[in-house]
Write a structure and sequence with these properties.
Elements: E1 2-7, H1 11-22, E2 28-31, H2 58-62, H3 64-71, E3 75-77, E4 81-87, E5 90-95, E6 100-108, E7 112-114, E8 130-131, H4 134-137, E9 145-149, H5 153-165, E10 168-172, H6 182-190, E11 194-197, E12 200-208, E13 211-219, E14 224-227, E15 231-234, E16 238-240, E17 275-277, H7 289-312
């Protein structure tokens, strides 16, 4: 029987593991199907993590975290959790190999995944010129022209990043205004090699056996523009990775909002006792590493208190 099961191994999950084990829970397992670290490991540069100065990548930032957690007894089970259910006071962790672990408390930190934009050719050419990670793939387009699809903070920040590498960036947005921070919008407008294409949406990305060769863009008047680029980056939001909370009857284990985000209080408590959610999957998540880590710490402290009360009262 686990004192606490942690689902997900990003900044929230790892911090939860650190605080839970160091805080006195004796049997804590973090279930993470791959290597710990989360999406931030794909970032080429971190400038806003407190105490970290100089040039550091997301991977460099996260490398020490697992070892620190394991020092205090956190165990890592490298397997996919398919579902979390609850019977009485006991949570059941259903795993892809058919086995089940049991736990008194659960902290879910499965994050979110980049959403596909949904235009023709996107799926077929994904990974061959279509990407959702500028910091992962931008290097391959150094000195070339690329297109960015989206109008939020991530799209504009990634366009600025790509503008440093590429000869030109076409920024395609379906509205006439951006949903990004004003200072970010201003920086984009002042960047000479970013061409802003508003009131337009991608119709089709096309290519050959080598990959993407161009994208067809349709404006609000129905006019089609053919932009010859070898790379297309899409940033149109994220899908919440909440699959582990879906029950056999299709309902969720706890309250969710209309966007599929877990509803929590300020202490990361969900509507189900003993179940906590942290990081990008919870409501109003800022989607920053430092915030996810803070969430994980709060959730772990609450889990410790919950387990202590459950077993001793």
């Amino acid at each position: 029987m686990l004192d606490c099961a942690i689902i997900g191994g990003g900044p929230a999950g790892l911090t939860a593991g650190l605080y839970a084990t160091r805080g006195g829970l004796s049997n804590v397992v973090m279930f993470e199907k791959g290597m710990p670290g989360g999406q931030i490991t794909q970032s080429s540069e971190i400038e806003n993590y407190p105490g970290v100065t100089g040039e550091i990548s997301g991977m460099d930032l996260m490398i020490p975290w697992p070892a620190q957690c394991q020092k205090f007894g956190l165990k890592h089970d490298m397997i996919t959790v398919t579902r979390v259910s609850k019977e009485g006071d006991i949570f059941k962790i259903h795993k892809e190999d058919g086995t089940i672990s049991e736990a008194y408390s659960v902290i879910v930190c499965t994050g979110s995944s980049p959403r596909r934009a949904g235009f023709a050719g996107e799926d077929e050419l994904f990974g061959r010129g279509v990407s959702t990670c500028a910091t992962c793939d931008g290097f391959f387009y150094r000195g070339k022209e690329v297109a960015v699809v989206g109008g939020g903070d991530t799209a504009l920040e990634e366009a600025l990043y790509l503008a440093k590498l590429c000869s030109k960036v076409y920024l395609i947005h379906r509205r006439d205004t951006f949903r990004s921070a004003p200072n970010t919008v201003e920086r984009v407008k002042k960047t000479q090699n970013i061409e802003i294409i508003l009131n337009s949406k991608p119709k089709e990305v096309y290519g050959d056996n080598m990959g993407v060769t161009g994208i067809l863009v349709e404006n609000s008047s129905g006019e089609i523009r053919d932009i010859k680029v070898p790379g297309v980056f899409t940033f149109v939001g994220n899908d919440i990775n909440n699959q582990t909370l879906i029950q056999e009857d299709g309902s969720f284990l706890c309250e969710m909002n209309k966007n599929g985000e877990v509803v929590v209080d300020i202490s990361m408590r969900t509507s189900t006792k003993g179940l906590f959610a942290a990081g990008d999957m919870r409501i109003a998540a800022p989607k920053q590493v430092v915030c996810a880590a803070g969430d994980g710490a709060v959730a772990a402290l609450q889990a410790i208190a919950y387990v202590d009360e459950l077993l001793n009262h």
